[in-house]
Design a protein that fits this description.
It is built from 6 helices and 17 strands. By secondary structure, the protein is of the alpha+beta class. The chain has 2 domains: 232 residues, Class I glutamine amidotransferase (GATase) domain (Rossmann fold); 73 residues, Immunoglobulin-like (Sandwich). A hairpin with a 6-residue loop joins strand 13 and strand 14.
Amino acid sequence: MRLSSFLLLFLTFCTLHAQRVLHFTATSGYDHGTRTVSLAMFNSIAVDLGIEVVDDPSGTNFSDPVALAQFDAIIFSNTSGNAILNADQRTNFEQWVADGGHVLGIHAASDTYRHSTANGNNTGTWDFYPELIGASVQENPNHVNGTPTYTVQRVGAHPSTYNVPDQWEKAEEYYYWENGYFAELNTATLIVEETVGPNGQVNSYDAPRPMSWYRTTGYSRIFYTALGHATENYTTDLLFRAHVRDALGWLLENSTGLRSTTTRPTLHLFPNPATNTLILTSTSPMNGLLELLDPTGRVVLTELVNGVTHRLDLSGLAGGSYLVRVGASVRERVMVVK
């Protein structure tokens, strides 16, 4: 049996104008009061990444699909509640995502349009959104008491954690997911250790749990972090800044801070079909995250690649068709035969 590899998609990443990002901060629930400091931080990050940030505290840009299409990514920075976008604006956003727009959610972005399966109030208005972000915070309690310090641990290899320590001691309002909504296809990049609940006990929902993760849907990349409760995150916490900067860079495929102007690489896979080992060769250096996705779209393997060749161990995979993705621009199919 033989399956020829074929090119699935090339996305135009580099354009003659700076990439544009929408900074969205509307609330109809709890207001964290971080709009100004968040905007200031992202304006600073924009200098690092060579992008343009447009502020939108009310959702005006969601009303016009043509205007929305001008943005490569949207940041939901401490948005909250279930009444920040009307039906037409929500439809425009869904189409923008379908067209390949990327989303970065921060902290209360998971307290925005809670999923219909999540407990408590204000659920079920727009399940598309929490399913995109990957979670809805549980209710009663939402989180630990105050902002205690716990150890956050890096998981796997992802550009968003290049510049944070393996063990990060961080004060934060750590969210709970157990009785809310949490998507199975989230791929965690940071996990907090076991916490103590507001009742002074270690509850089932205090178990170690993801605090940052990424996911993909169609051509879109999604990144969410539950960090970012207090204003200090945006003003003095350089590790938090580095984490969200590198996450945004990954969304835009701009992790190095330099927008590439080189020809997009062509990827070759050998052998294909493969059994236990796959060799990747590229016409130009690969630099970043390689992901292997199963037929459901779940990321089953991630590795950092750097160079024109890379050897991938497939011995732990079941037989079937997989998608090999290197960055945002190159995707190829491989058939694994066992």
